[in-house]
Task: structure prediction
Amino acid sequence: MPVRDGLKEWGKVQKGLLEPLKNPEVEITEVDLPKSPIKEISSYVHVGMVAMLQVEEAMIAEEKGFDAVVLGCLDEPGVTEAKEVLGIPVIGEAESSMHYASLVGRKFSFVGGSPESKGILQDLAKKYGFFEKLASVRKINATPLDFASNKMGLIDKMLIEGRKAIKIDGADSIIGYGDIDCINILRTELGVPVISPVQSSVMMAESLVRLSMSHSKKAYPKPNNILKIKKLKFRYE
Result:
């Protein structure tokens, strides 16, 4: 989780989303970024501020022997950079969500999250080759921390935007946001597949490990000064 106090703010939400995925053969360890200068991400500026802190934590995970790394946040700070540096699978929430959405439908919409990050998700859809399948990005007037605390009225707002995404924008699957209760209500009420970014990223990481696959080093070559990079410490005063 690429923010300060992520475990404290998002721990309950994460636990609920990961509970249905429990597998006795899989160990999931969650960490946040105590050195992060921010507690939520809603812009490219925020993404840039925490990207290399994410990469640093990912490198630590690889050194400790973890088989894969999921870098949290739909806006994907540090995902591409970590793919260059690491040899184990690195998964971002947006890319995994879009892959799953494309498997279960022809057009998908992102629903939820702060309005300021709408452009980031559109750019990521272009980056991963899914822009033609992107029906819309529908945000509501709420911050990430509003979702973390399950602020009153969020689910109703999510349902309103989800229905608009389906009826107006032509989406036949939804990439949702929020806790497991929100995701399950969206699944029941909207009548289309609703993908949780947290769940999809964890499942994609697990599948790549089981397939003994990682990202291509032809696509993501290691920097030639990788040893120096690993010795760097990124921090904010």
In short: The chain has ten helices and six strands. Strands lie at 69-71, 90-92, 108-111, 134-138, 173-175, 194-195. The first helix runs from residue 6 to 18. The chain has two domains: 6-93+199-231, 94-196.
